[in-house]
Design brief:
alpha+beta; globular; 1426 residues; five-stranded mixed beta sheet
Length: 1426
């Protein structure tokens, strides 16, 4: 593959959901006014030697290439102002004006490099004609789905660019071009150039290892402990030339370590700690194939089932002899429950290996002996610990762990004899000892290692953050000495550990952020240390929060009420989210107290992303568990030794009455305030003195005993949302009032999202540009409307214009780009540039978060600015309703946003700056717009999300009244009331043994009263409460009053509701089929079905800054068409991500997904398959087995498998994707059309025509519903149906579908177009085949046979045609070009480029002349004033 060409299109940081958007097979579609299809061109040159002549190639090329150019002209964004060509200049450049109008936009977007297009990339051959392939690819196919990171100025400021905070603010110049991205990080190629070392372990041969200089010695140890040959050892060191290497030393810093160096594995003596580490490793090896930890949510384990679907079940190249039997033999016949139209939603296939049998057991028992610890005299002989072992032969052994290794002693269960048994066997590794004393262990352990070696390493690596499963099979509880030791090792509830034995989390988190960041190596080490410390802190904080709620941690103030108590465990501070001492009484009481921790976490996340050096934040984790919300934070050194009021040197502790400030804090907050668009302001203290702040008054600055300056209480980081905050004597804009705003919310902690603030600022800049471009006379009006803040830094006033149109095409992008404004003359454009350059320091959008805070007063001189701030907040509230909600709906109509479940819907809303409390507003908006049917999938997902969120609110309160002993019964009762149909679902019968026992004994205890309280809940009561909560919280009247109405009237699925409520509340249920439609008096759920309740954890996720930047640069190259350059940058980003996070992380998955798609476009199917397999594994482990992104990964992997010839595997993967999609969102979803088209095409290739028709017909129905305004998509679906019916021999149906296709092309592109002619020829072919069939049938009816009639051609379609059609529906079009075509295009490009340069030079000359003129005018004005 050759090098790809460049595009002039502005590159955006993508943030849309994962999808493979299908595009029309014909590229001349008239643009849909409701959809702006984004396509981009990649001049990827592929040399194909052919025998065709140049004339034939040109004849075949012309229509395709013209179509491509016309498609680009119609669907791409308008060109930037400085690229627009006038008609007169176009006529001078080309003979035909219309031809150049079509070609110029393609050229502007592609920006071909005429010097390297063909000469440097293609070998010239004199004996053969060269052919090239131009790729036209749907831009969404190469987008980074749901991928948002810190902005470039945030994550690289202080790293690569040596600029101050002021210079990094958004630049506005001319058409306000987006700030150029910083250069690629300062990567030294030698820093990551790998080399080979030799490693020699005792008893094994020397092995070559490829290592990176950035790796540490500890990483080599981990690899050795994972390899089959060396996995038995844990207590060893690596020596180079007799010198022991430090485990935490980077290889690059080890002297004399070079290519070919020999590292020896040297066994070291054990300590008690090393014995414990060794036992843990042995346990991990023996349990490596056990999935129990994944279901229990421990040890970073999570399930993955990819291997079940990609394992070979037959010869892949075997074609079935018959349609149905062949498919069944191939192992790829679709299960009944995934066929189109099937209403069954089974749960058992979710985990196909759950009941496939137990793994091979090697030991019955391995546990600590009761003879521990060794007595003093045995310690003198080196005894460290005693173990008890029961082998599979049922033989009992007592094993001594000594400093030299492990041996069998003569102790029994009742007799202590530590002497070695006869014969004496001493092994340095416990596994070697077990191999010698148990033949069954030797055999089974060898088989286990072989099976373990065959599994992918990604299935065994622990995830950085624990992933919890909402379903699990019935599991057996077995003996496990390591698990038992862990349960007692943390001593939770005993408080026996000393403070010095616990990790100082605050010091770890702060010191890692203080690490140097001067070069790439420093930054990688810093990012890795920050990520590791944060992930460990989240894990410990989660465990501690569960202990607090379970009552296993002693409070430091036991005299307080339970929900007002505070706790300290493992140097972490824990507190309940409750309205302690009426702190939130004026803000909403308990509702505000419950919301405050999340708002504080959002503030911490925002300041964390800015990464201001010298400003320190507390590690923060919010845990929801069993109805309680607990906040876990690190402890500021010294804060517990003094009053909080005395510690605060910045901010206020009494809601703005007393305010203090600090110059050092003002300096530290200057950069974050600009990044977060927070206005510097003056507020009045209680003595009426003005105090300067650049944050909310609620932010508190505390100097710890370690000298660090901490910022706390960040819940008011962002300005309030006036749509849900009624203020006396303040009226919202008319648009908001017409929609019924302001509306009351359960609490007053309603803030605008950071994404909305950025979108609003971009929108204001755009309005300003458009206003100035209308007439230069508006300059004076704008200057008058721009006020100046009493503080120098920032003013927030902006021209007031009605906000009626959506001017941002992608408001959720991380780096916002703007729709170019067409400026009619260069003089006017120069005027705009001059105006912006003169207003750079005054025209900026910043918000004052204290404007509507009760108790905060401002100086009189700030009155005008405060009024402008109030207007700005009202405008932002209006902007959310009038711009962002319609923009979100439009993105769903355009399929740029493709939510599948509540989580992806929430992400999409947040990316548009829409809070989840606007769910009711969104539903009402969808109900009223004409395109409601095309948004049916969004409506159902939003309604399901609203219902389950209301149910979650009620469930939280419901659990607070439940005793721990009745948790399973109460949870199952709640689920029955929520999902069961029959009226008696709410009645708890006396078959509950615990409740029955309580009643029989007539217990009048509190527990008995509690059981009665929650057992009185009925389905009718619950759904009434859900409806009331919907009106109070979301201000929406639900169209359903029961689960039956939700299913029948609103087309929701019970399994979807069950999944959503389980994920939101942390419920884990037994994996089995539930009968929700049971009309007999039997509940769907029983107490045995509730297996566990997991915590729902919210926390910060640090990002690898340099890797993010490389990924963005790689995406920029890819979107410009430079595939190989982009692929190289993304590969580098993948290496950096892996270096920081490890193998399992969502960012790693994103890189692998992109690399797989790029290699697929380039035709390297094997490489794309390799990358995509890893992407699926990571997505399953990190995001969940049924996460929407995992579904997309399965779909892509199925496509790549078919491309390499693995047809049966491809079908199984696509069936898996369809099943997961049915479970998550149902069949009525636009993404299902793409999936069914893929399945139908592959089934067609296997001549399973009846099955293929089922899937393709369903795809056609969905396409008609969701792509109705795109007729060419319908034409493509018609054509696929016609081809399958032809293969089936049903020519009547084939003619009907192809006739519809012909009519669409004739209407859309005319009779002379190539696609119309192609359809016409195919109609003739079908007619001819139908005539032959009819003649045959007639003759057979009369005579019985006739050998003279030509046979029907019912052959299977070629694989090349199937791949071409799969590419079409995926969004990839291949256009053949010849040398003459490229030469012609190169000539056109050169002419346009030259003209473009002339226009730029003229514009620059006029601008310089005008600048000089204005400089003279300024001097004259100054002279007159003097």
């Amino acid at each position: 593959m050759g090098r790809s060409c460049r595009s002039k299109a502005s590159t955006k940081w993508p943030s849309r959901s994962t999808r493979e958007q299908s595009i029309e097979p014909d590229l001349t579609e008239t643009p849909d006014p409701e959809r702006n299809v984004e396509t981009f061109e990649m001049g990827v040159i592929k040399r194909v030697h052919a025998s065709a002549t140049s004339e034939d190639l040109l004849k075949n090329k012309s229509p395709h290439f013209d179509c491509m150019e016309e498609k680009i002209s119609l669907t791409e964004d308008p060109a930037p102002p400085d690229l627009i060509l006038t008609d007169h200049q176009i006529r001078e450049t080309e003979e035909s004006r219309m031809d150049l109008i079509r070609k110029k936009k393609a050229v502007e977007r592609m920006h071909w490099d005429s010097t390297s297009l063909a000469v440097s990339q293609v070998e010239q051959r004199t004996d053969q004609t060269e052919r090239f392939t131009l790729f036209v690819v749907d831009k969404l196919f190469l987008d980074t789905p749901n991928f948002t990171g810190p902005s470039f100025d945030n994550m690289l400021d202080g790293y690569v660019l040596d600029t101050n905070a002021g210079d990094m603010t958004d630049q506005v110049e001319g058409d306000r071009k987006i700030q150029e991205r910083p250069a690629i990080p300062d990567m030294d190629p030698s820093e990551d150039e790998g080399f080979t070392v030799k490693i020699q372990a005792p008893g094994t041969e020397t092995t070559d290892f490829q290592v990176s200089p950035l790796a540490m010695v500890q990483e080599i140890r981990q690899v050795l402990m994972d390899r089959e040959e060396t996995c038995r050892r844990t207590c060893f060191s690596l020596q180079l030339n007799g010198v022991t290497l430090d485990n935490f030393t980077h290889l690059s810093s080890i002297p004399r370590l070079q290519e070919g160096s020999l590292l020896k594995v040297v066994e070291e003596p054990y300590t008690v700690r090393e014995v414990r580490v060794h036992l843990r490793h042995v346990r991990e090896l023996l349990k490596s194939l056990d999935i129990t930890d994944g279901y229990n949510g421990v040890e970073g384990s999570s399930p993955s089932f990819l291997s079940y679907f990609i394992e070979d079940r037959m010869e892949e190249g075997t074609m079935p002899k018959r349609k149905s039997d062949g498919l069944k033999y191939a192992g790829c016949y679709p299960p009944e429950h995934i066929l189109p139209g099937c209403k069954k939603r089974l749960l058992m296939p979710l985990q196909p290996q759950a009941n496939s049998g137990k793994f091979t057991e090697c030991l019955k028992v391995l546990t600590m002996s009761s003879w521990n610890p060794p007595p003093g005299n045995r310690k003198m002989h080196g005894d460290l610990m005693y173990l008890s072992v029961v082998t599979m032969e049922d033989r009992h052994f007592s094993v001594t762990a000594s400093t030299r290794g492990f041996f069998v002693n003569q102790s029994t269960a009742y007799s202590f004899n530590p002497k070695p048994a006869n014969p004496s066997i001493l092994s340095h590794a416990l596994l070697d000892l077990l191999v010698q004393i148990s033949p069954v262990f030797k055999r089974n352990f060898s088989a286990l290692l072989k099976k373990r070696e065959s599994t992918h390493p990604f299935k065994r690596i622990a995830t950085p953050f624990q992933v919890f499963s909402w379903t699990a099979p019935a599991l057996d509880h077995t003996l496990d000495c390591v698990r038992a030791e862990d349960a007692s090792f943390f001593r939770m509830g005993y408080e026996e550990h000393l403070p010095g034995q616990a990790r100082d989390w605050n010091e770890e988190l702060q010191s890692t952020r203080e690490l140097p960041r001067k070069n790439l190596t420093d930054r990688l080490m810093r990012d890795r240390a920050v990520f590791k410390a944060n992930s460990d802190f989240v894990s410990t904080a989660t465990r501690g929060a569960m202990g607090v709620i379970d009552g296993n941690v002693m409070p430091i103030d036991p005299s307080e009420e339970q929900r007002q108590q505070i706790f300290i465990w493992s140097n972490i501070f824990f507190s309940f989210a409750s309205d302690e001492h009426d702190r939130y009484r004026d803000l909403g009481g308990e509702a505000a107290a419950h919301a405050a921790p999340v708002h504080d976490l959002n503030g911490v996340r925002a300041y964390w992303a800015v990464d201001q050096e010298g400003l320190y934040l507390l590690g923060t984790v919010v845990v929801d568990y069993r109805g309680y919300r607990v906040t876990a934070t690190t402890i500021v050194p010294g804060i517990l030794e003094r009053d909080r009021e005395q510690s605060v040197v910045y901010g206020s502790v009494d809601f703005g009455k007393t305010v203090v400030s600090d110059n050092r804090y003002l300096e530290l907050l200057d950069k974050p305030s600009k990044k977060l668009r927070v206005q510097r302001q003056l507020v009045l203290n209680k003595d009426d003195t003005a105090v300067e702040l650049c944050s909310s008054v609620e932010h508190k600055g505390i100097v710890g005993n370690d000298g660090r300056r901490y910022l706390l209480d960040l819940l008011f980081t962002f300005p309030p949302d006036l749509n849900f905050l009624p203020v006396e004597e303040e009226d919202l804009n008319p648009v908001c009032q017409q929609l019924g705003f302001p509306k009351r919310h359960p609490h007053h902690l309603v803030c605008l999202r950071q994404e909305l603030i950025e979108a609003f600022a971009e929108h204001r800049y755009q309005i300003f540009i458009e206003t100035v471009s209308l007439s230069p006379e508006h300059t004076k009006e704008i200057n008058k409307s721009l006020g100046t803040s009493p503080i120098k830094s920032n003013s927030t006033a902006t021209p007031q214009h009605p906000i009626t149109a959506v001017t941002r095409s992608d408001p959720d992008a991380e780096h916002h780009t703007h729709q170019p404004v067409s400026v009619h003359n260069i003089q006017q454009e120069r005027s705009i540039k001059h105006i912006f350059s003169s207003l750079m320091n005054t025209f900026d959008i910043h918000f004052n978060p204290n404007v509507f805070c009760s108790g905060v007063r401002f100086p009189k001189e700030s009155a005008e600015d405060i009024q402008k701030q109030k207007r700005q907040l009202k405008d932002a509230a209006e902007f959310l309703l009038s711009n962002q909600v319609p923009a979100f709906a439009k993105s769903c109509l355009d399929h740029r946003a493709m939510p599948m479940d509540g989580m992806t819907l929430t992400e999409a809303l947040h990316q548009h700056g829409i809070n989840i409390r606007y769910l009711g507003t969104l539903l009402e908006y969808i109900e009223k717009i004409p395109q409601k049917e095309r948004l049916d999938h969004v409506y159902k997902i939003a309604l399901c999300e609203l219902i389950t969120r209301c149910a979650k609110h009620l469930f939280k309160t419901y659990l607070l009244a439940v005793e721990p002993s009745t948790l399973s019964s109460s949870v199952s009762h709640f689920l029955n009331c929520f999902l069961s149909s029959f009226a008696d679902a709410g009645v708890i019968h006396l078959n509950d043994r615990w409740a029955s026992r309580c009643r029989k004994r007539r217990m009048r205890s509190k527990m008995g009263e509690t059981i009665t309280a929650w057992s009185n809940l009925t389905p009718c009561d619950l759904w009434k409460a859900i409806g009331a909560e919907s009106q109070e919280y979301y201000h929406y009247v639900m169209p359903c009053g029961s689960v039956k109405e939700a299913v029948e009237k609103c087309s929701l699925q019970r399994t979807t509701l069950l999944r959503e409520i389980a994920i939101k509340t942390g419920i884990e249920i037994l994996l089995r089929e539930y009968n929700f439609e049971n009309t007999v008096n039997r509940a769907a759920f029983t107490e045995e079905d509730i297996l566990n309740i997991f915590p729902v954890v919210k926390h910060i996720t640090p990002r690898a800054s340099d890797a993010l930047h490389l990924l963005s640069c790689g995406q920029s190259k890819v979107q410009q068409g430079c595939l190989k350059d982009g692929c190289e940058l993304i590969s580098q980003a993948l290496d950096l991500f892996t270096n920081v996070y490890g193998a399992l992380h969502q960012d790693v998955c994103v890189c692998l997904r992109l690399l797989g798609r790029i290699h697929y476009i380039l035709g390297d199917y094997a490489e794309s398959l390799s990358h995509q397999q890893r992407a699926v594994l990571i997505s399953e482990r990190v995001q969940g087995i049924e996460h929407p992104n995992t579904i997309q990964e399965y779909s892509s992997l199925g496509l790549y498998c078919f491309a390499v010839g693995q047809t049966a595997t491809a079908l199984r993967l696509l069936y898996r994707a369809r099943y997961l999609m049915l479970l998550v969102c149902g069949e009525d979803h636009p993404e299902m059309a793409l999936l069914d088209s893929k399945i139908g095409l592959i089934l067609h290739s296997m001549m399973a025509c009846d099955l293929a028709l089922k899937f393709l017909e369903n795809a056609f129905l969905l396409t008609s519903k969701y792509q109705g305004s795109s007729p060419l998509k319908l034409a493509q679906s018609r054509h696929l149906l016609a081809k399958v019916n032809e293969s089936k021999g049903d020519f009547r149906a084939a003619l009907r579908h192809e006739k519809e296709r012909y009519d669409i092309y004739k209407k859309q592109v005319g009779e002379t177009h190539e696609k119309t002619r192609e359809s016409s020829e195919y109609l003739k072919h079908l007619t001819h085949q139908a005539v032959i069939l009819q003649k045959t049938m007639n003759w057979l009816y009369r005579t019985g046979s006739d050998p003279n009639i030509a046979p029907l051609n019912l052959n299977a379609p070629s694989r090349a045609w199937i791949v071409e059609q799969l590419n079409l529906i995926t969004g990839i079009v291949l256009i053949p070009l010849s040398n003459s075509d490229l030469e012609k295009l190169r000539t056109d490009t050169q002419k346009t480029t030259q003209l473009h340069k002339l226009l730029q030079n003229d514009a620059q000359s006029m601008e310089d002349l005008h600048d000089s003129s204005e400089h003279l005018d300024t001097l004259q004005d100054m002279t007159q004033e003097d």
